[in-house]
Amino acid sequence: MKVLGVVAEYDPFHLGHQRMLAEAKQAAGDGSAVVVAMSGSFTQRGGAAICPPAARAEMALRGGADLVLEIPVQFATAAAETFARGGVGVLAATGVVDTLCFGSESGDLARLQRMAEVIDTPDFRAALRHALSEGLPFASARQRALEQVLKDEMELTPGANDLLGTEYLRCLPEGMEALPIPRRDDGHGGAQSATRVRQLLRQGDWEEAAQLLPETTVEILRQQQAKGCCPGDLTWAERAIFYRLRQMSAEEIAAIPDCKEGLENRILQAAAQCSSLTEFYDAVKSKRYAHARIRRIVLRAFLGIFSLPETPAYLGVLGANETGLELLRRMKKTAALPVVTKPAHGKKLTEEALEQYLCSRAADDLWGLCVEQIRPAGECWQNTPVLLRR
User: Fold this and answer.
1) Is 298 helix (H, G, I), strand (E, B) or coil?
2) How do 177-182 and 339-340 pair as beta strands?
3) Helix (H, G, I), strand (E, B), or coil: what is residue 159?
4) Which residues fall within 8 angstroms of residue 194, CB to CB, at 6 or more apart?
5) pLDDT tens for each residue of 193-227
6) In a designed cystine with 381, which of 61, 103, 202, 343 is the match (CB 3.0 to 4.6 A)?
7) 286 alpha-carbon distance from chain centroid
């Protein structure tokens, strides 16, 4: 059985995700399976997930995935390089995934591999330093550096998914293949974009959002809405976030990963004066400091994340169907990391793994402040994986 691995957020799982999984399985052949490494309560853009991880795992299982594993929160809320390292690290540690599958604007694996190779060369690093010295945000500087080094090889400007795909390829373990699946929308603003779906849900326009979602996703979202758990949004917790920032010193903020070059002073000043997160982000943003970077720094302050581990240290199971359960049985022999299927098992992890696990569970509790109906702390310790049986 060929086993595909996918790194995802599924925030929420939409028709584009469903199509990608179907095309990936078709390309892999009959009998293939999909293992998803998915972010938990908070996401890479520096925000709260639209609904809890268990609900999003169920969406994925009903949409074509077979096994859903958690990306520890330190990786899930990081910039592209660290996010990719965490997601691919989870998939590689299963010992059963043989092919990494990801969405791509170009769908051109050779081109993406060439970009991945270039990123680790001295010429690229020099071009990147020069672009950063001109005050460009990191993402823009990286794109310019790629264009300068590759020159005529860069026929098309790489999209966000191609750039993330190069990060996946950079940490692809030996022996694992890669399978890019071409996207059919125009990225973050496209009709199938999760960004658009979240916007519609938060505006209360469920009917239009439903046009972009599988029926099973709509059903699960409605169930979460009835519980007061959807749509999740960091703005529900902005008073708690401002309290946290206003209690921190400049030295403490400077210790947050990616907070450099005096950015802590801009953050402290804005936290003292602003009355909303939107106003805060705009006040701190500059040509050099992009919105996404600021959001991630603020989120890390809220979650208490002051260091980024090199690799994931556990495999947390969020959900599985019968094929996924068979993969879990295989993983008893193949997994390079401890597999956590029940919260109580997490308390028995080694020190490094326990630190990552507890950080993710603390994030789950804080996510409970990011919804209209505040959730009781400790719910995550009662949760068990979603199981779908025929």
Assistant:
1) helix
2) unpaired
3) coil
4) 9, 10, 11, 12, 14
5) 889 999 999 999 999 999 999 999 999 999 999 99
6) 343
7) 24
